[in-house]
Amino acid sequence: MRTDQTAVSGLMSQPVVVVGPDARAHEVLALADAEGVHHFPIVEHGKLVGIVCTCDLRELDREAKVKQVAWCHVIALPPEGSLSDAARLMMMQGVGSIVVSDGGGIRGIVTREDLVRADPELDQLLWEARCAACGTRSHLRPAPDGQCICKDCQITAKNTDRDGS
Hints:
Blueprint: H1 25-35, E1 39-44, E2 47-53, H2 54-57, E3 76-77, H3 83-93, E4 97-102, E5 105-111, H4 112-118, H5 122-127, E6 140-142, E7 148-150, H6 151-163
Parallel strand pairs: 3-4
Antiparallel strand pairs: 1-2, 4-5, 6-7
């Protein structure tokens, strides 16, 4: 497969299950189970305002609003963007999914697993994305210093900052 020429529109999952910023953690987790999805774009007044992953919700109080843990810097690509572009963006930004959107709104979503299933060679590119603290490849997100950090190391860093250790 020529991943530099294959458009994400041919691989994206659709329709995308979106939630509002005031959705509660337990509601989104139930929706995840019912729909079999892991990433939820957050839409408010028709505009993409964030994204949340079920891994971010599991530690929240069940009544907490998803906007508490949402990532506001959503990585997006137009439908004609290539699979290689999507893999590069995931690697550079340390994210596990990319929203496919255009002027008409959200069209789909592509995950790291989708890319590797489509072309196992993309795993080599995605392999480079690792947590700067522990080296894991799972649940990465951009850290304030521009490096990637995993969810667990981010929590540890927040607790250390809070405790003053």
